[in-house]
Amino acid sequence: MWRNVQALCRISQRTISTASRRQLDNRVSENQKLFQEDNGLPVHLKGGAKDSMLYRTTAGLTLLGTMYAVYYLLVSSMPKKPN
């Protein structure tokens, strides 16, 4: 257990250090070309399949949440029947 804690301390000190071990490629110009391309797609879907899946999931959850809210508004507007 103590070895794991020490290893974690060493790893965390390495990642926080200012010396970078690898340089990241600057891909801004590639992304600008992708998003400025005129292919008839809206900007929120130009990222590909991942963007499309995220959009559909968000739309589905929004629809389900709206239906759930309307259902409970209807249920709460109806008076309860006395037994």
TrEMBL record:
Pfam families in the record: COX7a
Signal peptide range: none
Keywords carried by this UniProt record: Acetylation, Membrane, Mitochondrion, Mitochondrion inner membrane, Oxidoreductase, Transit peptide, Transmembrane, Transmembrane helix
Protein origin, superkingdom: Eukaryota
Protein's UniProt keywords contain Cell membrane: no
Cellular component aspect of the GO annotation: mitochondrial inner membrane; respiratory chain complex IV
InterPro entries the UniProt entry points to: COX7a (IPR039297), Cyt_c_oxidase_su7a_sf (IPR036539), Cytc_oxidase_su7a_met (IPR003177)
CDD domains linked to this entry: Cyt_c_Oxidase_VIIa
Keyword hit for Transferase: no
Gene3D superfamilies (UniProt xref): Cytochrome c oxidase, subunit VIIa
GO terms (BP aspect): mitochondrial electron transport, cytochrome c to oxygen; mitochondrial respirasome assembly; regulation of oxidative phosphorylation
Membrane-spanning residues: 53-74
Molecular function as annotated in GO: oxidoreductase activity
Subcellular location as annotated: Mitochondrion inner membrane
Protein's membrane topology: Single-pass membrane protein
Chief place of localization: mitochondrion
Metabolic or biological pathway, per its Swiss-Prot or TrEMBL entry: Energy metabolism; oxidative phosphorylation
Family, similarity comment: Belongs to the cytochrome c oxidase VIIa family.
UniProt xrefs under PANTHER family: CYTOCHROME C OXIDASE POLYPEPTIDE 7A, CYTOCHROME C OXIDASE SUBUNIT 7A2, MITOCHONDRIAL
Protein's UniProt name: Cytochrome c oxidase subunit 7A2, mitochondrial
Organism: Taeniopygia guttata (Zebra finch)
